[in-house]
From TrEMBL:
Name of the protein this chain belongs to: Uncharacterized protein
Amino acid sequence: MKLSSIIKKGFNFINILGLKKHKVDDNLFFLGDRNLISSFKKIVLYFPDYEYMHFGDHLFFEPLVRFLKEKGFNLKVIPTSKMEFYFISAGALIGTSEDIKNADLLITRLEFFPAVKRLKNNILFIDTTSLEIKKHLCQDIVDKVAKFLSLNADGFYAKPSKLAECVGNIKLDDSYKYILFNNYIDSGFHRVTKRHYDKLAIFCKKFAEEKNLKVIHVGTQRDKEKDINKYDFVFLDLRGKTTPQDLFYLLSQKSVKYGVSFDSFIMHLFFIYDKKVFVLFRGRFIKKAKDYILKYVNPPFDPKKSLFDVIEYI
């Protein structure tokens, strides 16, 4: 995360103190006219700034998109541009500034308070980092928004969806079995040292050799340019050659069996595609925050099976 983002989060924390009196649930805050809630028809989900909404954060809200669509709302989503494809796949329409003006309700993360506080819309803020959350995060979001709108969410399984149609330009030789390796992170860098990066690489190399797996290395072009290390165990270097949509495609391939990464976007894709991922967890400074992540975010939905089959920490 950039220093500018950390500074913004600091100012954000100060700004949101004024929202306490607008609390409508453990981690939900509403600015607007409560008498109008039952009449809401047009809803916009708003999170277009990558500094406050990383790729993985988008996944947490996809079940809410499907739920609100099922309930008949006129729904638009304004995500970061590189994640628009994911919500289009879920059947949502991408919103515009005009849709914001016409919306009955704007739903966003608490981090966006400074960006929207001057809007005249009814706005529902969701704090996805709240330690008051006692369910898997995706289910918590759906259940609490449903409660706010007086909707029934019983039986709705809030697991982020795979892409409805997964296509990509990357061709894999299916005579091999692969492990996806990503040893980069774009947030929480203050909790990561060289030892962590080395540990991921050492583990990946050893595990790939033991299981006779070919290693696919993924990351951004900037990651590649900044990384002076040599990875002699990598079979296919795709750093700088993949978009988020390409990563969905790779995970959809049967020949991709495992993943190795930090607790990041890649990790969440493995959860979605029901494939095991080995994770180097960066921890949290507060034990309660660490416990929240381990219990309700990794993964952010009920996996319906043993956690060992989903994630293993290294």
